[in-house]
Amino acid sequence: MTELKISLSAVEYLNTKPFLAGLSAHDVRKKLLITQDSPAQCSYKLRSGLADIGIVPLADLSELQGFRRITEWGICSDGPVESVLLVAHQPIEKLKRILLDYQSKTSNQLMRILAEDYFGCTSVFEETGAGYEGSFDISCGAVIIGDRALKTRGRFAYQYDLSEAWKQLTGLPFVFAVWVASMRVNKELEAELDQALQSGVKMVKEVASEFMSDFPGIDINHYLSNCIQYRITENHESAIELFFEKIQMKEGILK
Description:
255 residues; alpha/beta; D-Maltodextrin-Binding Protein, domain 2; 6-stranded mixed beta sheet; 5-stranded mixed beta sheet; 9 helices; 39% helix
């Protein structure tokens, strides 16, 4: 009888490709059914029981029941990240509205924190759907993440890197996503996953070369090697704790 494979949902963005390369090159791939999804879709699949393993936006952790964090790997940054941006045609202090990216709750929560604590702006936030970043007027700014953010370079007069702003506000790095697993994933499989992810991090240059043609004019090797961090250290854990403290504080005020 054929053993059922474990379902793994990975983010489809460029910054996760090294992890996917490591998984593909490791024997653990034989035990997995891997899909590539948006951050929001990863969270949905985990909540819905459609995936057992996933790299999930940090802000969605509290919504996941029956899952635990695994491995010391994730998607992090320490300063400018270049792929989590607020873009606009005028300075942030003049924006009446800020459109939020429908693909990631974490970046939207980060924007809400920074708007008050760092930028000191009072813009109204609006939820969005697919295609929002292609048409908004001068009174609006927009949070844009992932590959779409990388490709917006030069299109807007004002571009604010949210990871850089967080670093200036707190002195800490930022963690965008972490790996989680359900109880179906035993310690043996978890160890194999950790090995595969670690090997993928060592393949950054090869991954950059593979996807370079998809991002003309962008230094992909610099982005994956310097803007993105993959290992979650104690300093990153401190940033996670502070992020959730700030969310809870703002939610308490709103109540």
